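for the writeup, i need someone to sanity check this before i put it in the appendix. the sequnce is what the collaborator sent (i think, or maybe the updated version? ugh). structure was predicted straight from it, no edits. if anything looks off just tell me and ill rerun, i have time this weekend
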Amino acid sequence: MNLDKYRREHADIIGHVQQLKALCTQGIAEEAASIAREVIAMSSVIKLHLSVEDRYLYPAMQQASPALAAKARHYQEEMQDISAQYAHFSRQWNDAQRIAEQPELFRADANRVLKLLFDRIGRENRDFYPMVEAA
């Protein structure tokens, strides 16, 4: 299975995370409008990526070896929690005024949720995708 599209989407998501970090460094309240736009843009990429994984990648892995099928189920189940946390984050922080009014709360939420996302992408790229390609 060719996973280039998934890896490109991961790189795109990481790019959004890095852009959010750069904006936060410039000042959360001062860059609130840009931060809100970045959250919205990243959410679009994440929603599409998760949809494609759920629709194509994970079901295809159920036809693979039992070990790979189990790993795919684990990743899919784990992603449900991360996805729910990200969805809450994106709904809460897609508004510039709210970000500007609560910059430290935004920072705390962003650090927590984006670290979950970043770590998960790293594990997929490092552990799961190589297993899929080897199958």
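The chain has a mean pLDDT of 95. Residues 4-134 form one domain.
thx in advance!!
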